[in-house]
Specification:
By secondary structure, this protein is mainly α. The protein is built from 6 helices and 2 strands; from the N terminus they run H-H-H-H-H-E-E-H.
Length: 124
């Protein structure tokens, strides 16, 4: 049985610091962040990622979003940062990178990111 999207309160609890930080800047960001994280959870569920991949992707997505927002980065800069961090998590070269995602995962994650991140980028 496939799980549905998480309840908003679960996401707020999981990413509490991020929600508090950005809703203090602009309360309208709460809905944007909820949607962003919900779509990310739905993606990892659709990929049937095990726990380590599931949590790593969610953390990377949150980190790139926050870095892009705070750094006022261009779409291209955000994508380059995203690529770098995903690749760092798909190679085994300790202590510089860890092998969490395989080649298929990287392709699916990149396709998903390209299809969805711009939508959220434009809103913030």
């Amino acid at each position: 049985m496939k799980e549905g999207p998480p309840h908003p309160s679960v996401l707020k609890d999981a990413f509490g610091g991020i929600f508090a930080k950005y809703t203090a800047i602009d309360p309208a960001l709460e809905e944007l962040l909820l949607d962003f994280h919900t779509v990310n959870v739905e993606f990892v569920q659709s990929q049937s990622f095990p726990f380590q991949k599931f949590t790593t992707f969610l953390e990377l997505a949150a980190w790139v979003f926050e870095s892009s927002f705070e750094g006022h980065k261009s779409r291209q800069e955000s994508f380059e940062e995203f690529k770098e961090v995903v690749i760092r998590h798909s190679l085994f070269r300790q202590p510089y990178s860890v092998n969490i995602f395989n080649e298929r995962d990287v392709k699916e994650i990149t396709r998903f990111w390209l299809d969805t991140f711009d939508r959220y980028y434009e809103q913030y």
